[in-house]
Specification:
2 copies of one chain form a homodimer. Chain A folds into 3 domains: 334 residues, P-loop containing nucleotide triphosphate hydrolases (Rossmann fold), CATH 3.40.50.300; 131 residues, Aspartate Aminotransferase, domain 1 (Alpha-Beta Complex); 326 residues, Aspartate Aminotransferase, domain 2 (3-Layer(aba) Sandwich), CATH 3.40.640. Helix content of chain A is 34%, strand content 19%. Chain A is built from 26 helices and 31 strands. In chain A, the strands form 5 sheets. A 10-stranded mixed β-sheet of chain A has the order 1-6-5-7-4-8-3-9-10-11, sandwiched between helices. A 7-stranded mixed β-sheet of chain A has the order 16-27-26-25-22-17-18, with helices on both faces. In chain A, β28 and β29 form a beta hairpin. The radius of gyration of chain A is 32 Å and the shape is elongated. At the A-B interface, α8, α9, α10, β12 and α11 of A face α8, α9, α10, β12 and α11 of B. β15 of chain A pairs parallel with β12 of chain B.
Chain lengths: 864, 864
Amino acid sequence: MFPLSSLLHFPHRSHHRRHHHHHLLLLFLRRTLSTTAAASTIPQSPPPSTPLQIPLSFPTYLICSSNTSLGKTLVSTGLAASFLLSTHSHSLLPPKKFLYLKPVQTGFPSDSDSRFVFSKLNSLAGRRTIRRSFLSFDHVLKASRSAVGDVPSEECEPGMLDLGSYSECRVVGEEGGEASELVCKTLFAWRDAVSPHLAAEREKGTVEDSTVLENLQRCLERGFEGWDNSNVFSVIETAGGVASPGPSGTLQCDLYRPLRLPAILVGDGRLGGISGTISAYETLKLRGYDVVAVVVEDHGLVNEVPLASYLRKRVPVLVLPSIPQDLSDDLMEWFEDACGVFDSLFKIMLSAYSERIKRLHDMPKKAGEVFWWPFTQHKLVSEEAVTVIDSRCGENFAVFKVNNDVMTQQFDACASWWTQGPDATLQTELAREMGYSAARFGHVMFPENVYEPALECAELLLEGVGKGWASRTYFSDNGSTAIEIALKMAFRKFTFDHGTLSDLLNDDSTQRHSQLMVLALNGSYHGDTLGAMEAQAPSSYTGFLQQPWYTGRGLFLDPPTVFLCNNKWNLSLPEGLQSHSLKYGNTWFSSRSEVFHLSRDKSDIAEIYSSHIAHTLAQYPESKGIIGALILEPVIQAAGGMHMVDPLFQRVLVNHCRNENIPVIFDEVFTGFWRLGTETAAELLNCVPDIACFAKLMTGGTIPLAATLATSAVFDSFLGDSKLKALLHGHSYSAHAMGCTAAAKSIKWFKDPQLNRNIASGGRLLRELWDEKMVGEISSHPAVQRVVVLGTLCALELRAEGSNAGYGSLYASSLLKQLREDGIFTRPLGNVIYFMCGPCTSPEVCRQLLIKLRRRLDEFSQIR
Amino acid sequence: MFPLSSLLHFPHRSHHRRHHHHHLLLLFLRRTLSTTAAASTIPQSPPPSTPLQIPLSFPTYLICSSNTSLGKTLVSTGLAASFLLSTHSHSLLPPKKFLYLKPVQTGFPSDSDSRFVFSKLNSLAGRRTIRRSFLSFDHVLKASRSAVGDVPSEECEPGMLDLGSYSECRVVGEEGGEASELVCKTLFAWRDAVSPHLAAEREKGTVEDSTVLENLQRCLERGFEGWDNSNVFSVIETAGGVASPGPSGTLQCDLYRPLRLPAILVGDGRLGGISGTISAYETLKLRGYDVVAVVVEDHGLVNEVPLASYLRKRVPVLVLPSIPQDLSDDLMEWFEDACGVFDSLFKIMLSAYSERIKRLHDMPKKAGEVFWWPFTQHKLVSEEAVTVIDSRCGENFAVFKVNNDVMTQQFDACASWWTQGPDATLQTELAREMGYSAARFGHVMFPENVYEPALECAELLLEGVGKGWASRTYFSDNGSTAIEIALKMAFRKFTFDHGTLSDLLNDDSTQRHSQLMVLALNGSYHGDTLGAMEAQAPSSYTGFLQQPWYTGRGLFLDPPTVFLCNNKWNLSLPEGLQSHSLKYGNTWFSSRSEVFHLSRDKSDIAEIYSSHIAHTLAQYPESKGIIGALILEPVIQAAGGMHMVDPLFQRVLVNHCRNENIPVIFDEVFTGFWRLGTETAAELLNCVPDIACFAKLMTGGTIPLAATLATSAVFDSFLGDSKLKALLHGHSYSAHAMGCTAAAKSIKWFKDPQLNRNIASGGRLLRELWDEKMVGEISSHPAVQRVVVLGTLCALELRAEGSNAGYGSLYASSLLKQLREDGIFTRPLGNVIYFMCGPCTSPEVCRQLLIKLRRRLDEFSQIR
């Protein structure tokens, strides 16, 4: 049975106490089946529909340790004492409140850290001369059946019990008045004194990570209701070591990661303890935590010296006096001895907290003063409009709200501007792998060298996105540079094929330079450097003010596009083709799959496309130049406004150029690596290029790296006896080790069905991420002009006219603001807004996004 | 006194031994003051003049642990037994040799892990039925005086004693024949059973890291002389945990890092051990180690399950049976029980070794098949010419030599193509910080957002390289993109200043586009994208074959240059100025400082420069275009052939443009961040730009990131009510968190005199890194045309004519090959070769490079 007595604690009376005080003790015990029990059987927990929010208006610290039994609870107790029992505290000062949270407790009820803090504080309050009264509580919220009823694990029903038990104690101070408070809470407790994941499994009391976090959030939000934030303090004590598993098996450093609370690391002062402490510190750093101080017990080995040297004074190291080994010692003397250390630690924590909050508050103003953001009219960005991003965990930002000091989760729906891919698990893996790569290689120059990450990455690219056609990988830094390289490759290949190369080799004249042109599509976008810009049609981006040297070296065709409207997939033909369509048939499809179906190759519309292309090219005057390359973004033109080009048109175009011996470049910078539901968009087109460019998602979206893949025929056109015939384009960081490492890891991860649940059985397709029915409804919404949904992308164009339409429009801003309130961070392309997730994002998360979008669209229509 | 008895061990006779065998025991003890004792008093050890070389022709593993006393020595013993005492080994098979190395032993002589391995193996050999004879040795090479003589530490003389002690034992097998061998060696031993750094300090027996490594190298090289590599195996057992300090105080994971041996991690099977094991694994990863297997003792807590889950099957986890706690247990039964586990572990290690070696051997061929290296004529690169880089540690590559299976250190004298900066310490710090940043942020989109690394980096840039003039930071990915952005900024500013902006705002015509031109210098290089290329003069890089769209939109001036020849700094004037110089005075300087001295502003030559520039500009016909920007690389034109431009000429040019209201761009992509001995080369010129570009060394040279800094006046010319007036150039990874983190860390580190010994007292200059006398001698060498030495750069042009000169020349290749034999990795610019070090590289390292260069230059001249 549950040992009631163990919850009853009287503060010790010490010999120097001179004041009367009352003890008030309450205890009750409730047992009901917790509601979390049912939820815990679902293997993948649904995401919370309200985003996680953590108040930062008062200090909250995570107390971590490099191992079990190093004194985390002693540190928590000492901090509570420093805060609550300071001799300076008198009745003229306001009362204080300290919240001690122990989310996960094993060995319960014989072990209870919250009870320990509660009981020691009472004893200390009794010993010390306190002027203000002191009230304390110890709550235990939920426990496994074994922990509560002492039933053998095998006989337990699964689930956790609501255990509304608490103890309360009051110590009356010299001056009376309103009492300071200590609230200790154990959130979840298990009986066996083993690792939480093992206890939870044995006692059939699993608790999902999201449940732990929601409960923590609730405790922090409600813990200080009615209190002045300047008089409150909170610690969350973890169980075991930093990387000990929590109840679900998730390592605790990962479990608590979405909160990213600052941490105190209780290190190890024993022999071997330097190593354990440093390693634990590195584990925290590799999860993005900030460690504010390290505390070690004195074992006479001066471990603090090498620790301080390792930490290079960035982080203070404090030394606690030796802890008495005698179990009967009540530690009162020890706490008095350690009092000065705890006071210092407390001051460090308070000042680190203040500095952090001050910095977070200052950031929007400073950003506005020192940054020059790309694609941003600074005059239109007020200080209030600047988003302070404290961290990211998987697909979510942690955004600091300056107006109410809250850290709130926002889904990164701009997928960090089209790059972001990992979920929280892959993010941690990538962080470790990139740390490894930096430590192993730093950066290593590439030409004529080989090193593992570059080789592995090149091999994976050729076996993956280049499979069946590419034989060479040319690395560069970003999409723009990859495109410039692709153009150089294509033009050389064209020149080579068309027999003019040998003439040109000895020809220094600049006569022919302007003659090579690209064939491209209107609405395309291939990057921001001049060479990439020259390959795109005139647009908002290419005016003299933006690109003083732009001329537009191409023949640009108007492409037919496809979109969803009123729950139907439509084909929209450009002007030159419209008359044909009226004659030849339907301009809509029964489904999106029909759009991509190869049977369309034999349709009338294929014939129309083919003759239109042939006709247009035939009419292009040689005086304007020679078409030396075809360049296109397969299926989706992203920066151009998220337009889906009819894949049939692109396929016909590619085949035409192939017949004419014009090299074909696919710009897969945006579309590559599952963005559109397949590893490459070329698979959707069902044809292959001679050259293709990849970047963005290639590294999982964490770090810049690009690759231009090419066929062996393209490569061969650069072979020769002279270095001057080689491709003399490169960047210092070509194939940099960290980028290649991230790419190799991400490429493998995204397509592994063991790691990415979205990979369907065949391995070539992501499952449908955006709920079809809901997307259909949104496409029928009166505020919506068109929807494009494919793979990780769901975009819509708001109905707008005049200056409300187009890239410069601010039409969507009120809608975007509302979505941010819902925890969705988006950035528009004028009146086009889009949601983008990662290749591993759960469809349930996407469904939540659509629900919120639909609701906000309704509001948006009503306002207009 | 030294307890001799403790070195004598007889193998136990077990009940099932049926064979006669002899025991041969030898012991002698020598005491002489070690030669390392003297060396150990020098605070910074000189680099070894011969590069570190580790044989990889047989397996060598590092045995590491997450804490002390987890069983590293048991694992070493078990592996030795698996290898040497296999029952399958008979006299027809060749004998085997196992080398056990314990570099650092404390608690000696009562504790000696090598003696333990030695004695247990003898006992096991005695117990088991061995067919082949077995010979074993235990050596102890050096020990502190306290450890040897048992004198109190206070009375000790500093230094380590040569302790040529060894034990030997022979067990005769059933079949006789040549014996298998076990050689156990303790390299350095101390008496106190504490952390090595503490024992070394207390016992006045410090050993430098380089001494440990050299001794290890020697043991590995000599350990198997005369043995067939396929029959040998070696382990190096570390002391304590992975991050326990070694004798010098360097953490062991850092101490052994230059070898980067594959590791076996002995984890912790106890409560809390999951965390410690994972953290230790992460510490090893954060040093670039590969962990091949994790071994834990069974404590009934199934720690292997969460460990295997964390490791995702990348690394196998093996479980050892519980180790008897009884100290009198001879562990014979335990070893028999654990035999199967050790056999598996051994197989894993053998197969990981084979895979690694196979991969290293395959890499050159595979690289030649899948890579397309930039700036490389593939036809000229044979498989043999490909360098296999296994890792980097600070300034050194670890290069795998395919022909003799040796891993050898090579100084990265191309400084990884002009980026590399950190020494080994900073590399580790950067790896951890970048891992942290990836874990905290991954990547976060930049526009209208603020996050700590971007803000800190921008602030550091403006307070540092932009101090006194810049007010805005525009981030991009590399030097080329930073230059394209700079050009856009400059042209907008020019247009704005010259009153044509409002005309152009409503002017869509393309008439004026080609009119804006840059003023630039011949020999300059600003990057590889088209826009950057357009700003440079025609060169090998700009021909039609390379840049089909290149036109060269600039007025390009011939600059006067400065160089060292015959130990004298000369001024070389371009053709147009030569007649003047004859009239007006000296063309050489008394010292390099004189070149930079501001008093030259008042010299005749300043006047000549000024009027030459004014005259040339006045003559530039408006039909060719309007000069809208000045762009130059301050002081050194790098890609153009490592030319030092007369700083006076550049200053005069800048002042001229400033007077004409022409925006000035400094391309500091190469020169920035201490490359030339000052944080910016602008400091050497003593004038400031309106816009400056930084990249390469900005992140410490580890990861691509660029910044274009600008004045507020430049920024203001983009302000307006329309987004279309903003600077619409950006890349998805603008201000990516990892790059900004690396930059912030490196910027602070390089200029901190506490961390970078090369920072002279004033903090604005690096101390002279290249020995002046030796550089002077090299400049007088008959093979040398000219030398340019400044900051971290030492370049020289070899005297060459015709096709031997210029970028396409292969003239230097034999010299470079020789330098690689000396452990120096260089890459030429045609007949120009250069050494580049990092801002923290010790002058002694540079001196060693020069010594080797001078020797090889002598040989080079003799061949010619």
